[in-house]
Design a protein that fits this description.
By secondary structure, this protein is mostly helical. Helix content is 76%, strand content 0%. The chain is elongated, with a radius of gyration of 19 Å. It starts with a helix and ends in a 5-residue tail after the last helix. It is a multi-pass membrane protein.
């Protein structure tokens, strides 16, 4: 077999292994998935009227706030799901299975590829589930064209890939699974200080740069524009640049950590 065929075969095997683990131990994925769903329901049904009146023209309209809120919740779902990747990678590193893989005649990067592809697939499934909840409570995207839907799915997938590589690096650099979970908390915390819940312009002036100059805000504004027809401006290019930059950084970081000689 050629080296490419071996790489594809071994990566597929590692992908099946990670998906099997996710199916046998779904508690981590379910716990991480519960957070965005609970936030969605909380902000819609408890704070929806107040929030819509605060960011709108003074009238309380919960349906408008649902439309505003959902893009940010979808990207928060991706950030939460990738925490499971950090924990999974750290578990593999500390339980000795990776040391065993190092002694086998397999394509070495396939171990990481399996984790990354498996995580991206889990992110997509999580987004679909949260999106279904959003539709059930009233979210509609009636103005989006087919091309805009394709671009939205592409953005979500690219964002999932970028955050997954960062999460894998966090898992490899952590001494255990608990530390990996703590180190990856910014992937859930950053959406809370972005434009996911309120516009950046509504925040205090001293806080606006913190919310604006981070990866989630341009991605949220781009997704919001694609699904709702709002202005995207330069946020589209910023979102893609953040995704590509984080993916490259995470890949280089993860590869460097994984190729280090074990202590």
């Amino acid at each position: 077999m050629s080296s490419l065929s071996l790489a594809v075969r071994d990566s597929s095997t590692m992908l099946r292994r990670n998906l099997l683990h996710a199916r046998r131990y779904p508690s981590m994925t379910l716990n991480l998935l519960l957070t965005p769903v609970m936030l969605l329901l909380l902000f819609v049904y408890i704070f929806g009227d107040v929030m819509s009146a605060g960011i709108g023209d003074g009238g309380a309209d919960r349906s408008e706030y649902i439309a505003y809120l959902v893009p940010g919740i979808l990207l928060m779902t991706i950030g939460g799901t990738t925490i499971g990747s950090a924990v999974s990678v750290a578990t593999d590193m500390t339980e000795g299975i990776v040391a065993r893989f190092r002694t086998m005649a397999i394509h070495r990067p396939s171990v990481l590829v399996g984790h990354v592809v498996g995580s991206v697939l889990q992110c997509v499934m999580s987004v679909v589930l949260v999106g279904a909840v959003a539709v059930a409570i009233g979210f509609r995207s009636t103005n989006a064209t087919v091309l805009e839907w394709i671009a939205a799915v592409g953005l979500l997938t690219l964002f999932a890939l970028a955050l997954t590589w960062i999460a894998v690096g966090m898992g490899l650099s952590s001494p255990n699974a608990e530390a990996a979970s703590n180190n990856a908390l910014p992937l859930i915390f950053l959406p809370l200080i972005s434009s996911a819940f309120v516009p950046v312009d509504a925040m205090p002036s001293w806080f606006q740069p913190i919310a604006e100059y981070q990866p989630f805000t341009p991605a949220i504004e781009t997704l919001r524009g694609l699904l709702l027809g709002t202005e995207i401006g330069y946020n589209g290019w910023l979102a893609v640049a953040w995704c590509v930059g984080l993916a490259v950084l995470g890949h280089v970081w993860s590869k460097s950590l994984f190729n280090r000689d074990p202590k």
